[in-house]
Amino acid sequence: MTTLRNRKAWWVLLAAIAVTLGFPTVALGDDQDGADTPAAILEPVTQIGEEALPASQRNPIPFIDPAALPFAAQHPILFEVFPRPEPAPLDESVPSITLRNPEPIDPPPLDELRIVLDWYLSPQHAALLVAQARGDFTRYGLDVTLNVPADPSLPPKLLAAARADLALGRQAQLHMLVDQKLPLVRVASLIPTPLSSLIVAAEGDIDTLADLAGKRIGYALDDSLSPILSGMLDQYDIGLDDLVLDYVNFSPAQALLEGRVDALIAPLRHVLPHHLDEEGLRVRGFSVEAYGIPRHDGLILMANRNTLASQRSEIKRLLNALEDATEWALNHPDDAWELITGHYPTLATAINQRAWPDTLRRLALRPSALDAKRYATLQNYLYERGHIASRHPLERLAVDLHAP
Fold first, then answer.
1. Is the separation of the CB atoms in 160 and 393 below 8 Å?
2. Which of 116, 123, 212, 329 could lock 359 by a disulfide, CB 3.0 to 4.6 Å apart?
3. Does the global pTM surpass 0.90?
4. 237-258 burial, b if ≥16 CB within 10 A, otherwise e?
5. Beta-sheet strand order (sheet of 166-169)
6. 8 Å CB contact between 293 and 232
7. Mean pLDDT, rounded, of the chain
8. Residue ranges of the chain with pLDDT lower than 70?
């Protein structure tokens, strides 16, 4: 009899669980011994799925209280183990949908760099101009300003006084200024070949450098005279004192066209002959390397050694931008010309267009790369001829910021 009662209790318990879980209709019939069992039929629980709603609008899952079933009164002890759970509160602070677009993320601010050019805008500045016009500087997080000096002698002075972050110049000029204790250091070579030459009228009376004695020579840069011109004249036993020197500032072509000078010495061999030819004057040039001057970088980018450490990241990114711009310009010379003349209309002249192909051929593919031997050779040349008082360690003169 006890066994039969236990079996009935288990049947009731299982029926309650089935109803709670929403199982199909279950009927309790006779057990295997044929004893009577409750005849109540348990109705199934039907749950209708709600439409997808935000969390704040959903109803909790329905709870069936087993103690309220018809046969609960007959077996109360079976339902004492079913306490009614309290529904968890809904978290209203968590939205279920996005009601608006996310706020745009502001780009990081650009790092500023001020560069003073060595001359007015010219094809020799191709790497800088293309990088600016093509957006390479911006892509590397830089806001670069290119400034034309009022006088071609000013760029290194402005840089040494920390009134500029970078300045263009020439390798021979750098050696002289470092020897004068200016805190300058080369960080890039934009044109790694000499640009200086002596230019004379083709129909004039100067056939060789020996004919220069007593002639009037136009110049715009001090380092064009010493060590460049003085070095070219060494083998002819002619000194600068044997010449009449005329400072022509930014107008060397006009000085020769007007007959104010007999010859010009300037780092403009890539553009000045084209300028004079456009004006109807045929000229002849004497390249400096053909007269004993060691090969050197014709156009370099200098930094202030005292601030280089704090600007190292910005300058390295600038060099990356210059390398990208140079490679693109060499691969797309016509597009590069259209780009810079559209961005800088003053460059769109017949003279500059003629000079463009010759200038592109001279650009450094890797501006940051340093030829240590070239700097040591030119320094020894200058020291042995008394142009500088001391030899200086290479790191005082030039650095390769991309070196491992």
1. no
2. 123
3. no
4. ebeeeebeeeebeeebbebbbe
5. 142-147, 111-116, 166-169, 299-304, 184-191
6. yes
7. 85
8. 1-99
CATH class for the region spanning 112-193+295-397 = alpha beta
pLDDT of residue 280: 96
Distance (Å, whole) CA 288 – CA 284 = 13
Question: How many angstroms from the chain centroid is the CA of residue 101?
Answer: 30
323-337 pLDDT per residue, tens: 999 999 999 999 999
Distance of alpha carbon 370 from alpha carbon 186, whole angstroms: 9
Bridge-partner residues for 244, per DSSP?
Answer: 216
Q: Please indicate whether the domains covering 112-193+295-397 and 197-291 agree at the CATH topology level.
A: yes
**What are the backbone angles phi and psi of residue 191, rounded to the nearest 5°?**
-130, 105
Query: Top-level CATH class of 197-291?
Result: alpha beta
Spell out the residues 6+ positions from residue 304 whose beta carbon is closer than 8 angstroms to its own. Answer: 159, 160, 162, 165, 183, 184, 185
- What pLDDT is stored for residue 374 in this prediction? 97
Cis preceding linkage at 76, omega within 30:
no
